[in-house]
TrEMBL record:
Species this protein is from: Actinomadura sediminis
Keyword RNA-binding: no
Intracellular or extracellular location(s): Cell membrane; Membrane
Membrane-related topology note: Multi-pass membrane protein
Keywords: Antibiotic resistance, Cell membrane, Membrane, Transmembrane, Transmembrane helix, Transport
Source taxon at top rank: Bacteria
Pfam families named in the record: ABC2_membrane
Family in the record: Belongs to the ABC-2 integral membrane protein family.
Protein name: Transport permease protein
Domain ABC transmembrane type-2: 45-265
InterPro entries the record matches: ABC2_TM (IPR013525), ABC2_TM_bact-type (IPR047817), ABC_2_transport (IPR000412), Nod_factor_ABC_transporter (IPR051784)
Protein's UniProt keywords contain Membrane: yes
Residues passing through the membrane, by range: 47-67, 79-101, 122-149, 155-175, 187-207, 244-262
Amino acid sequence: MTVEEARAEPSAALDFTPAPGAVPLPRMILAQTAYELRAMLRNGEQLLLTMIIPVVLLVLFSATSLLDLGPGSRVDFLAPGVLALAVMSTAFTGQAIGTGFERRYGVLKRLGATPLPRAGLIAAKTLSVLAVEVIQAALICAVALALGWEPHGDPFSVLALLLLGTAAFSGFGLLMAGTLRAEATLAAANLVYVLLLAVGGVVFPLGEFPDAVRSALELLPISALAEGLRDVLRDGAALPGGPLLVLAVWAVAGLALAARFFKWE
């Protein structure tokens, strides 16, 4: 097109008018999810907590008789409990510590000033947690199968338990990160992790505790998740009502409290 033609037809000339506009929300969430996931996988402490410790516990207690795990295959008892531990380590412990220090250093405040809304940031963190849990589950299941694990039950029941467990642990992880100082969150999250590992039916059978204590321990989210997964994957149960109800109550309570009391600064 010649200059004369362009002048004669202005609409045909190049249009350099700015066209401002935000990136679509799903694209922003996916970009933030990718960042969150890379940050988690590059953190050596996070990898130790989420990947190495669960696998070490699974191999150690499956291959030795250090603990009396009752009748049946040792790995059939341990694999569901270690899966529950992996969910807790990522959704609760790792998320609480990571978010707590992001809050302390002003990362959350700065992210809150970007075009990504706070609901989008929470969605990105949730997606990154789920992505890590998929990796954890694949690794733990592969190791367990190599050790002779023979899982039963339907995948839908397992998925329902894992999602409710993730929601429950995420709610209380965010509540802790959004209300306590970062150092207090670090100490408290690790303490809770160790305590629930010891008394939550992960590697120690709840049947070894006195009846009154066992009844109380069964109401913990880690116990409900571990026992529910055990009911499905070892015993072939479908949608275990008790564990699902316990996890649903913890999930609603944790997410409601986190939404009410979380402080971004």
